């Protein structure tokens, strides 16, 4: 008897591939622009016509117009999925599970179904 046959017996004849099927979950991220010398994100810093008031040490690049990739963390509580850019440690500790922003994770069928049902199917990919 092979390991696969033994597992199928334990699973009541269910296909091992069907039960063990895995998915990847790629958490979202987006480019955001931060102002030079500022520590607060401003979604409209380019569009608002704010003055360019600082530059780099050499003066050749102005960080005011620098886009930075920022990840959004998926936080799962039961069948509810929320996203947060900067979740607190308390939020993460209280969650059933979480997936840090800008990462790719392998998740189970059950986990994938939670994301699909919550409307995040575009972030879930079946591993073939």
Q: Topology, please?
A:
Elements: H1 3-10, H2 16-20, E1 22-26, E2 29-34, E3 66-71, E4 73-77, E5 80-84, H3 89-94, E6 97-99, E7 104-108, H4 109-117, E8 124-126
Structure description:
- With 128 residues, this protein is α+β, with helices and mostly antiparallel strands.
- It has one domain (20-126).
- It is built from 4 helices and 8 strands.
- The chain has helices spanning 3-10, 16-20, 89-94, 109-117; strands at 22-26, 29-34, 66-71, 73-77, 80-84, 97-99, 104-108, 124-126.
- It has a 3-stranded antiparallel β-sheet with strand order 7-1-8, with helices on one face. It has a 3-stranded antiparallel β-sheet with strand order 5-4-6.
- Mean pLDDT is 74; it is low at 44-51.
Gist of the model:
With 128 residues, this protein is of the alpha+beta class. The protein has helices spanning 3-10, 16-20, 89-94, 109-117, and strands spanning 22-26, 29-34, 66-71, 73-77, 80-84, 97-99, 104-108, 124-126.
What oligomeric assembly is this protein in? single chain
- Total E-strand runs: 8
Shape: globular
Q: Give the topology string: H per helix, E per strand.
A: HHEEEEEHEEHE
Structural class: alpha+beta
Percent of residues in beta strands: 25-35%
Helix coverage percent of residues? Answer: 10-25%
Number of helices: 4
Distance between the termini: 25 Å
How would you state the average pLDDT, rounded? Answer: 74
The domain count comes to: 1
Q: How can the largest sheet be summarized?
A: 3 strands, antiparallel
Strand order of the largest sheet: 7-1-8
Poorly predicted runs are 44-51
Radius of gyration: 22 Å
């Amino acid at each position: 008897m092979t390991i696969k046959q033994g597992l199928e017996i334990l699973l009541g004849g269910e296909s091992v591939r069907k039960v063990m099927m895995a998915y990847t979950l790629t958490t979202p991220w987006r480019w955001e622009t931060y102002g030079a010398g500022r520590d607060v994100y401003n979604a409209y810093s380019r569009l608002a016509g704010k003055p360019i008031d600082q530059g780099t040490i050499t003066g050749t690049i102005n960080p005011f117009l620098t886009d930075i990739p920022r990840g959004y963390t998926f936080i799962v509580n039961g069948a509810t999925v929320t996203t947060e850019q900067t979740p607190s440690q308390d939020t993460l500790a209280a969650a059933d599970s979480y997936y840090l922003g800008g990462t790719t994770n392998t998740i189970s069928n059950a986990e994938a179904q939670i994301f699909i049902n919550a409307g995040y199917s575009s972030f879930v990919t079946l591993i073939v």
